[in-house]
Design goal:
Layout lengths: L2 H15 L8 E3 L6 E4 L7 E5 L12 H14 L14 H14 L3 E5 L2 H15 L4 E5 L4 H10 L2 E5 L4 H10 L6 E6 L1 E2 L4 E2 L2 H10 L3 E5 L14 H4 L8 E5 L9 E5 L1 H10 L1 H4 L6 H16 L2 H19 L12 E4 L3 H15 L1 E2 L2 E2 L10 E4 L7 H17 L9
Parallel strand pairs: 3-14, 5-6, 5-7, 7-10, 10-11
Antiparallel strand pairs: 1-2, 2-3, 4-12, 8-9, 11-12, 13-16, 15-16
Helix pairs in contact: 2-11, 3-11, 4-5, 4-9, 12-14, 13-14
């Protein structure tokens, strides 16, 4: 058995399909995001502009966040010291969980090391606790949700994306006595569309199902206090479990769930992904705590981000670039071919100092490869005009079709 040959073949397949992933070597410039330095493919750092970060509101650069992390570092040191059960349950963790519970109007919250882990650990544990549970999962749910459902070993039924009628059909056909959980996201990050949360909750009420809402691309971004789409639409009280991240709009790292105290107790007591993992560094937790508190009180960053996203959508559309319809802060530009998407990305970085990663299968279906832009409140009009002009030039160079208005 030639193991190395098998491994090499697996990598060669990715190269052949044009979806081999390259991690760009960069450093962000503190206090001047989206400006950064790129170390890839040239001698020394080259100035670039970052257009694809999930630090949507630049909170990873905010003075309050940086100061809180510096203060925590000098107060308690670098690491947490262990799992939450063994030395790693710091006062920062307790304060942040209380702040997150309040953000979503829930009785409690529980921190995890990432949003992926919070989805995987919570969904897999919940279904194991509920004998015979059926999970009804939106077709476009994130890989971490799919992993959690798979790891639960329970029955899974997939409903068409945001299709309430299809979900009703599946619920009607299911055993009325079986425990049920409806799992979905609020903002779907590759298309930028939004779930009909209230309608999904109506079905949950009718069929006695629990609801699990992934708000990772919406927390901090929507609602009066940044509680997400469920906050904006005033339906958070109807959702059983809200899951979120601290690594996107809040600008730091970590994941969490917010729900009632009994479910929190079950997950913290039974989920291996929580029990056996070293807890987040208190330095990170302190930064996240400062970020959550700031965005509860400030809408300036959210408003700036929404204005930037709308401006970029308008510029792309006006130039005939194939911008996909989106009602959120995500600005996807359709390419439809993995090799061309990678080529556009490479040209932007090498010739224009623009960093945006191509999004390929399995993140999106084959044939829908795209560039995903996430303009924030610190991307100014000049940057957007320059980006649009660069894309138009590349589209012409590669003989791609522009969509001129009639």
């Amino acid at each position: 058995m030639n193991y190395q040959h098998i491994f090499s073949q697996a990598i060669n397949r990715l190269h052949g399909e044009g979806r081999y992933r390259v991690f760009i070597d960069i450093l962000r410039n503190k206090g001047s995001y989206p400006n950064a330095r790129c170390f890839a493919g040239h001698n020394g750092p080259k100035p670039i502009t970052v257009w694809c970060s999930n630090d949507y509101l630049a909170m990873g650069q905010h003075p309050k966040v940086v100061t809180a992390m510096e203060d925590a570092l000098h107060d308690v040191g670098a690491g947490s010291g262990g799992t939450r059960n063994i030395g790693g349950n710091t006062h920062y963790h307790v304060d942040l969980e209380a702040e997150l519970a309040d953000l979503h109007g829930k009785e409690g919250a529980l921190l995890f090391t990432s949003g992926y882990v919070s989805n995987d650990a919570t969904l897999s544990t919940l279904a194991k606790i509920l004998p015979g549970c059926i999970i009804f999962s939106d077709a476009l749910n994130h890989a971490s949700m799919i992993a959690g459902i798979r790891n639960s070993g329970c029955e899974k039924q997939v409903f068409r994306h945001n299709d309430v009628a299809h979900l009703r059909e599946l619920l009607e056909a299911a055993d009325p006595e079986a425990p049920k959980l409806i799992a979905f996201e609020s903002v779907y990050s590759m298309d930028g569309d939004v779930a009909p949360i209230a309608e999904l909750c109506d079905l949950a009420d009718e069929f006695n199902a629990l609801t699990y809402l992934d708000e990772v691309h919406a927390v901090g971004m929507y609602g009066k206090r940044g509680g997400g789409i469920s906050d904006r639409d005033e339906v958070a009280d109807r959702v059983t479990i809200i899951e979120g991240t601290l690594g996107k709009a809040f600008g730091v790292m970590g994941g969490y769930i917010a729900t009632d105290k009994v479910i929190i107790d079950v997950i913290r007591s039974y989920a291996p992904g929580f029990i056996f993992t070293t807890s987040l560094s208190p330095v990170l937790v302190a930064g996240a705590l400062a970020s959550v508190r700031h965005l509860k009180a400030s809408s300036e960053e959210r408003e700036g981000q929404q204005a930037a996203a709308q401006m970029l959508k308008d510029l792309f559309a006006g130039a005939g670039l194939p911008v996909m319809p989106s009602t959120t802060h995500i600005v996807p530009l359709m390419v439809g071919d993995p090799i061309k998407a990678k080529r556009i990305s490479d040209i932007l970085l090498a010739e224009y100092g623009v960093y945006v990663q191509p999004i390929n299968f399995p993140t999106v279906p084959r044939g829908t490869e795209r560039l995903r832009f996430t303009p924030g409140p610190t991307h100014d009009a000049a940057m957007m005009h320059d980006l649009t002009a660069a894309l138009v030039e590349i589209w012409g160079r590669m003989k791609l079709e522009l969509q001129r208005a009639a």
